[in-house]
Design brief:
The chain has 370 residues and is α+β, with helices and mostly antiparallel strands. It is 29% helix and 24% strand. A hairpin with a 4-residue loop joins strand 3 and strand 4.
Length: 370
């Protein structure tokens, strides 16, 4: 392999290519003791101490579970194509389910270096190519012979160390920023609860200087037009191409602020359906989808169209859109309870949405809160 385009000073020469199997040694040492409270689980994000699973396992036993030591590689053969692969860089001596594969690294590959490349797009594509579909698209077994043939290019050990240290520093900075982000999210949640009146109250707990007087509670249907549509079949080619108009799918409301969509539809699709173009600055609500997406709210900052699983709240001019969005966002768990069941899944509908009560203050105070 040729050398990379960007390189640390002092390193030169081509990187050497290996097969992954030539850089790993399988490790399969088993525990001979029951009830050891040191059981790990592996996910696509990390290895973690699985206390809950261990509590259940006590009724079974941990004998014959696989041992794993620090700086060993572990992955799930059934879920490798879903990135379930990790280098154990934290735990000294722990146990794993026998379903995992565990490897030590040979001397020419640093575990810390492989940690940085194990989930790159290139490696993930190789995991997918090495996994064979079994029973369904979500159940694939790893073909070990193909896995061992995965090509990997390596520099010298000092250069591996230099590359690892660089990315480790970036990872540390990312972690610090994520912690700051979580603190800001918690701060926002706290202010959202204090800047809106609680149930049965007419004024909020916390208020900006210069504002006074009781707030007015109104149903959404009194302050907005609530609209849903039905879209034509996506199997019709002329409706999908050319891609001209932004089209929002249900799960995309998780973006919260919509500046782009993952897909677009043709003008002919728009003309041959009940779908209408939604002007920017409307509140969008997921009516029916799995898990947390249902009742998630968003604001569109571009004109777009949606499918039948999203409702648009188009507010009157004396109502601030971002203010209404913030109120609905702060009441996520409360409002999810209003969903109805249609024998297939939980739904929100126009009637339910229109009856949701929002506490309103003057437009200047709405804008100050937003």
């Amino acid at each position: 392999m040729k050398a990379p385009k960007i390189r640390f000073k002092g390193f030169e020469g081509a990187w050497e290519e290996f097969s992954l199997g030539g850089l790993l040694s399988e490790f399969d040492e088993r525990s001979d003791i029951n009830d050891q409270d040191n059981l790990l689980s592996s996910t696509k994000k990390w290895l973690f101490y699985n206390r809950e699973y261990f509590s259940w396992l006590k009724q079974q036993n941990t004998k014959w579970y696989k041992k794993i030591f620090k700086n060993y590689l572990v992955f799930s053969p059934q879920n490798l194509w879903l990135w379930n692969i990790n280098v154990n860089d934290s735990f000294e001596y722990w146990l794993l389910s026998p379903s995992y594969k565990i490897y030590s690294f040979k001397s020419n590959l640093l575990p810390t270096f492989f940690k940085q490349i194990q989930k790159t797009e290139k490696m993930i594509n190789q995991y997918i190519l090495s996994s064979e579909m079994w029973a369904s698209i979500v159940r694939r077994n790893l073909n070990l012979s193909l896995f061992y043939k995965i090509p990997i290019s390596l520099p010298s050990l000092p250069e591996q160390e230099k590359i690892w240290a660089f990315f480790e520093q970036l990872d540390s900075q990312i972690t610090k920023n994520q912690q700051k982000l979580e603190k800001l999210k918690n701060m926002k949640k706290s202010f959202l609860q204090k800047l809106f009146p609680k149930a049965w109250a007419t004024v909020p707990e916390l208020r900006f200087k210069g504002f006074e007087g009781a707030w007015e509670e109104r149903e959404l249907g009194e302050s907005a037009t609530i609209t849903t549509w039905w879209t034509p079949s996506t199997t019709i080619e002329k409706y999908r191409y050319p891609k001209e108009i932004s089209w929002l799918s249900s799960w995309e409301v998780n973006k919260k602020h919509i500046y782009f969509t993952d897909n677009k539809i043709s003008q002919e699709w728009l003309s041959n359906s009940s779908t209408k173009l939604i002007n920017k600055k409307s509140v969008l609500i997921a009516l029916a989808w799995q898990w947390k997406t249902r009742w998630t709210v968003a604001i569109n900052h571009i004109p777009l169209t949606t499918n039948q699983s999203i409702a648009a709240i188009i507010l009157q001019t004396n109502i601030n859109t971002e203010y209404t969005f913030s109120n609905l966002e702060s009441r996520y768990e409360e409002i999810r309870k209003y969903s109805s069941w249609d024998w297939t899944r939980w739904w929100l509908n126009k009637q339910i949405i229109s009856e949701i009560k929002i506490p309103y203050t003057s437009l200047p105070e709405q804008e100050k809160i937003w």
